[in-house]
Structures are given as structure tokens and as C-alpha cells.
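Write out the 3D structure for:
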Amino acid sequence: MDHRSAFCIPVWLVCVIICTNVLCPVGAYLYNNRYAGDQVFRITPGNDKEVQMLKTILGHLKVDFWQPNSASLICQNATVDVHVKRNNTRGLRARLKEGHIDYRVFISNLQKEIEKQTGYRSHRKRRSESQYDYEVYHSLEEIQMWMFDMNRTHSNLVDMFSVGKSYEGRPLYVLRIGKRSRHQKKAVWMDCGVHAREWIGPAFCQWFVKEAINSYQFDSVMRRLLNQMNFYIMPVFNVDGYHFSWTTDRFWRKTRSRNHKFHCRGVDANRNWKVKWCDEGASSHPCDDTYCGPFPESEPEVKAVVKFLRKHRKYVKAYISIHAYAQMLLYPYSYKYATIPNFSCVESAAHNAVTALYSAYGVRYRYGPASTTLYVSSGSSIDWAYRNGIPYAFAFELRDTGYFGFLLPESLINPTCTETMRAVTAIASGLLKKCETNRDRFPYI
């Protein structure tokens, strides 16, 4: 064997390793063509009879709920988006027509839409932060490498650390963004990627960091924010699930923890917080997408963030969680129909945020309490944050309203992140004015 052929073997092996760890979905067919012929239906039951009929039909088919995220939340005159396996599409159509339930097929071939969203990534820029492409979706490995690069190249504004490890042993990295100070500053916590399939979330967290750092020198608003506050940014909360959504199942939602009694894996990381845990809007069955877990904070990812927020809650004034899709800005309560004690301050902050967002491209967001604006859910992160003394707790549901659903094209990353940047900046700017929660007025939860 000559030197050239001896060299070829390790290069080939390196290529295999890279393909295995980073670019698994890219090939002749993404995800082994598993979604070919699958469809997404948008169904609108017009009365209570149709609601009950639809729940029965979908229960027998075991569909993947997109919006809402479980059959229990189906109600009349509200759209239901469901991903249906190719073997069940004809049967579903027949049942809906038989029941005179209004529907349309939103996505006629899910595999093609997945390939449209992500495309082939040979052109993608990676590794070097100066060449990093913020207008494509990135794998977990790429995002973590980017975090190391940002920490290394912007040490005056960035500090990287881990708050713990995931179920599968991956580090849970966070970036602290802000001008270093001897004094404790107010802080904002923002996490993305709680639900694995919502890829626009991690894309926005990266966008926020890039914009904050790049505009620090010339933008007076951002300079003031970074001088007076710290931003704790967690680009991928659910690291195991996000990785799995790249390698195996594009529409995976939960964590990847194992259950000893059932073959189903994972817990809904936004139903696992210790506030009205496993009540309305959460499921106690491990195979459901809204499974609350065996006990509160059972997921190491949730427990790690809870520990960090508890330790720093004296300084953390806002908790922001980025989700998709619905074009909404939500605040507590999620678990009940009630008004929070500092409603006027939070409502004003939400109004300012959606107004700032609208100013970019005219995209309208609904805003209000999560229970009335979206649906009731228990064990959510925003209710926990609010209950633990963080006066501003928000959950964004980013673009769109269902045309693309979880498959928001890369061409829409820029406008989506640009407008959301304005909203988050508006919320953070409001923190520099006084609006404290009166702890004495907290109802017992």
C-alpha cells in the first residue's frame, strides 16, 4: 500500500464519522424516506357532535397532533392540524366526509416538504463564527461548536457554562451575554428548543446572540441593555430530543428519557414543572406527547434549569421561552382562567412587544394569558417562573399559523428572527422601568 492509499483510509473514516454525527438526515432521502406519502390535515369541527366524532376518529388512527397537541383540546370552530401516516390518509378522508366535518389537506406529501425546508447542506458554512450562516437550521453539534466559538471570540461580552447534563449525558450549555460588572445586574433568561421539532426556536436564540453582540458598539439601546443587564441564553433546552429530531424522527417533541413500564420514551418538558403538575392539559400516559413525567422535575433538563433559576431568582426579572407555531405571545396563567396580580404591567409589556414585532413586516401576533389565548396546560415553565417570583414570564409561539407548521422554510428564518428580536428587545427594555410583582398577592398554587 502506497502513502496515498494509506492516507485515503483515515480521510474516508473521518467522512463517515462526520456524516454519522452531523449530517445524518442528508442523503438520497432524508430520514430514510419515512414520511413519503404522509399528509397534514387541517380539520374544523363545527359543533359538539363533530368534536366528539373527530376525537373518536383520530383516537383510532393514532395521529401526530400538531395543533392543538392532544385530542382533549379539540373544540368546535377551532382548527385541528394533524400529521397522518400514508396508510391512514384515505380512511381519514372517508370518515370526515361521512361525518360532514370540514377539512382540507395542508401538506400533501410531508417528505417533500421536509426536503424543501432543509435541502442539501453541502453549501453550508460551519465551524468559524465569522462564516456561520444564521439563515439555515443547524444540528446540535454545530450549535454547540458555535457556542464555543462565540465564547472564545467575544470574551468581553460572552461567558459559556453548563447547568447540568441531559438524560443521555449531553451538556446543557448556556451563554451569558452582557458587559462584565462587579455588581449584580438584572437578568433575563431565555430558552429555545424545549420541544425538539420546533427548529425555529434554536435558530432564534442564535440570532439573538449574534445581533446583541454585533450591535453592541453602534446601537444605543442594545449597549444600554448589555451594560445594565445579563441575558442567559439556552439555545437548545431539550438537547437529546433535538438531536433525535435531526437523526431519526423530524417531528419528535419530548425528551428522550426511558420509562420502565412502557416502550414509549420521553416527557413533555413543558408539562414537567412543579406547578399544578399533571393537571388539566397534561397527560399521565407515557405514550402521549403531553406526558407530564413520573413526577415533577423528573427530567434532568428541567431540574437543571430549575436549580439555576432558583439560585438566581433574586436577579432574574424575565423568563422567556421560545416555541412554535401559532404567532402568539403568552403569559401566565397557563393552568387556570385567572388574572395575574401584576396583569397591567405584563399586559403592557406584551402589547409593546407585539407592536414592535409588527413594525418589522406587519405580521400580527395575538397576545394574552396562555389559558385563554391558546389552551389550558399544567406544569408549564412560565407558570413555574411566575410562581417563583419572576415578574415577567412569557412564551412566544413563533411563525407561522399552520401553512408550514413545524417545517418553516429556511428562507423565513431571517424575517422571523428579525421581528422577534424587536419583541424581545422591547420586553428587556421595559425591565429597566419598575414593575415588580407583589409577592403578598400571589394566590397559592
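Residues 3-21 form the longest helix (19 residues).
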